Amino acid sequence: MERPNTFADARATFEEAKFVVAGIPFDRTTSFRPGARFGPDSIRQHSWNFESYDLETGIDLTEVPIHDLGNTGEFGSSADMAAGVREEMRPVYAAGKIPIVFGGDHACSPPCVEAHPNPGSLGVLYIDAHLDFRSSYLGDTRSHACSARRIVEAVGAHNVVVLGVRSISREETDDNRAIGMASVTAHEVARDGIEASVQRALNMLKTDRVYVSLDIDAIDPAYAGGTGTPEPFGLTPRDVKYAIGQVAPRLAGMDIMEVSPHYDHGNTSALAARLAREAIVRAVASQRVR
Ligand SMILES: [Mn+2]
């Protein structure tokens, strides 16, 4: 079925909007299977699958002001991408709006954080199978294998928690021993339960506002196999839904990266779209009861 190439229910103008959707079709740093550049439009397409009304919060997304900026242009290098994304995202924060960004590979996340007028005021919940903590990878400091490291440089190590991690190199472990970025591993979530794990993660973030960077590969490949570097023993979709619900009252912005539709039967894109909608309805619901 032909669907408009915007996020579902994104009917507001930029000026009216509280939430601003944007796509970054960039995947030049993917290290295994490329294709995340097709993520933004696939997530948008699948967003039309859902009812606008949310059963749990009672919020109808047609009544929430959402604007879709469309996709950024193409970028030749990761450095150009970072500069271009910062330029596109700065006006979104400056106007007091909450960005909801679809990638693209995870290299697209650091510039979304760096574009904030005061990155050091942000906590970052970095939900990912991988630590992404290399200083440089294959000669590229802006590789998707370096994204958490770049975000730590922008906001401070004490303001970042990685949730759902289960793939770490020895080099990253050694580096992080000195830097001290916190993590709650997927194995700890399995052992302690998602509620205690998310509480522990969010207690470590002392900032008023939290940015959520979701690499879809944090979720087990059984649920979200449409991604570039699938990693077994992951979180469940419900785990991540719960985490998003808990962080939503503090939401400063969110991205969902690494959806690679050509390895997907649609379930990964549908999940990404649904989790974006979850963040929006939970953020709206929390402000209602404030
Ligand atoms: Mn990852």
Q: Identify the CATH class.
A: Alpha Beta
| Alpha carbon gyration radius | 17 Å
User: Helix- and strand-based class?
Assistant: alpha/beta
Give the termini separation.
40 Å
Q: CATH architecture, please?
A: 3-Layer(aba) Sandwich
Number of helices: 9
Q: Please, how many domains?
A: 1
CATH topology: Arginase, Chain A
Question: Per the principal axes of the C-alpha atoms, what is the gross shape?
Answer: globular
Number of strands: 8
Question: What is the residue-mean pLDDT, rounded to a whole number?
Answer: 96
**H/E series:** EHEHEHEHEHEHHEHEH
CATH superfamily: Ureohydrolase domain
Bound molecules: manganese (II) ion
Give the strand line-up of the largest sheet. 2-1-3-8-7-4-5-6
What ranges have pLDDT less than 50 throughout 5 or more consecutive residues? none
Write a concise synopsis of the structure shown.
The chain is α/β, with parallel strands linked by helices and 290 residues long.
Q: What would your notes on this structure say?
A:
- The chain is of the alpha/beta class.
- It has one domain (19-288): Arginase, Chain A (3-Layer(aba) Sandwich), CATH 3.40.800.
- Helix content is 35%, strand content 17%.
- The chain contains nine helices and eight strands.
- It has helices at 39-47, 78-94, 109-114, 147-155, 170-179, 186-192, 194-203, 237-247, 267-288; strands at 19-24, 66-71, 98-103, 122-127, 160-165, 182-185, 209-215, 251-257.
- It has an eight-stranded parallel sheet with strand order 2-1-3-8-7-4-5-6, with helices on both faces.
- α8 (237-247) runs parallel beside α9.
- It is globular.
- The termini are far apart.
- Bound molecules: manganese (II) ion.
- Manganese (II) ion (MN) binds at residues 106, 128-130, 215, 217, 229.
